[in-house]
Amino acid sequence: MTLRIQRSVERTSVVFTLIGRIQAEQLPELQGLLGSEPSDQDIVLDLMYVKLVDRDAVQFLANRERAGAELRNCAAYIREWISQERNATHRKEAQNPADLAR
Fold first, then answer.
1. Predicted model pTM
2. CATH of 3-94, one of 3.40.30.110, 2.40.50.180, 1.10.760.10, 3.30.750.24
3. Which pLDDT band, with edges at 50, 70 and 90, does 2 fall under?
4. Which of 7, 51, 58, 76 is deepest in the core (most CB within 10 A)?
5. How far apart are CA 25 and CA 36, in angstroms?
């Protein structure tokens, strides 16, 4: 199973419905699609039909959400994994200044 992407428009938002698996090899295409949208459009990633993600995909989703995208219909396991990745990133960022002071 691969990733299918369907694009639709809702008022001021562009909704990308993702279907299937999100894996590292699909991320450049997805990034290109998201990057081609006008900056005045809100981005929504609808994950209702996502069945499987890898770590690169989770990091990508976390970064997109941090940049302002909405993750709609995000499965609980994906949401939890995103939270864990964010916490790990925050811990690494918190450790770096201490490492530099040594």
1. 0.85
2. 3.30.750.24
3. confident
4. 58
5. 19
C-alpha–C-alpha distance, residues 22 and 18, integer Å: 8
Two tokens, residue 44: 């929504």
Q: Which two tokens stand for residue 22?
A: 């999100």
Question: Where does the pLDDT of residue 50 fall: very low under 50, low under 70, confident under 90, or very high at 90 and above?
Answer: very high
Q: Both tokens of residue 41?
A: 């459009």
Where along the chain do its domains lie?
3-94
Helix 76-101 vs helix 55-66: angle between axes, to the nearest 10 degrees?
80
Query: Running DSSP on this structure, what letter comes out for residue 95?
Result: H
CB 32 within 8 A of CB 16: no
Beta-bridge mates of residue 21? 52
